[in-house]
Amino acid sequence: MNDSPNATPRRDFLGQMAASALVLAGSACAAPAAAAQAMSGAPTPGQNRATAWDDSWFGRLTAKHKAVFDSPEFDEGNILGPGHATRYINGVRDALGVPITDVQTVVVIRHKAIPFAFNDAMWEKYAIGEDLKIKGEDDKWATRNPFAGPRGGGARQGATDRPQANAVWLSSHGHIFLGCALATQGYAGKIAERTKGSSNEIFEELKANLVPGMILQPNGVYAVLRAQEAGCAFMRST
Length: 238
Description:
Strand order of the largest sheet: 4-3-2-1-5
Shape: globular
Number of helices: 10
Order of helices and strands: HHEHEHHHHEHHEHE
CATH superfamily of the largest domain: DsrEFH-like
Largest sheet: 5 strands, parallel
Distance between the termini: 82 Å
CATH architecture of the largest domain: 3-Layer(aba) Sandwich
Number of strands: 5
CATH topology of the largest domain: Hypothetical Protein Ychn, Chain: A
Strand content: 5-15%
Helix content: 40-55%
Structural class: alpha/beta
């Protein structure tokens, strides 16, 4: 045992020297690691990852009355989300006496309903009507998306003051359509198997041929919950 009065200061000095050496060694290791991380493109802790997804629709949901309609399925050749959206618009107007401009809806197309996110050109090219077993007015396999735009003629097609359950009317009146990119990728794979084509190329083609106003999101579940963050009431349209 060392009872020298200089023992404790000496131990403190050696401890400080060891700690300093550890700090210097850690700094030397951290610099190459940070450089490697920067070269790989990986985000450093606390750094926001850049995204290619369009989130601008979130800021456009400013109406007092808002609802999101989750459409993962279709029934008898149709999806219910757009119809539910127009009923909500009409209901708020009739019950509360407010103009329809005070109402906004979000329709999320996902899961098995994802083919309804694509325009008529894709329906015709890839025989989507036949794939889904949906027939048109001529009792043949549909080559047009029944939800994409107004169908038929007359006053109903030209009326702009009456809510219509199609992408053209709803998107042109401030309503939002969100599609599931994950389901789109899956359906592209299904088409590729049927046509012996490239899944990646078909995926890119589908993304470039969405119905009016449709915005792809990473997945449909995210889209539904993100709309609720914006204050939308939720309804499952099945």
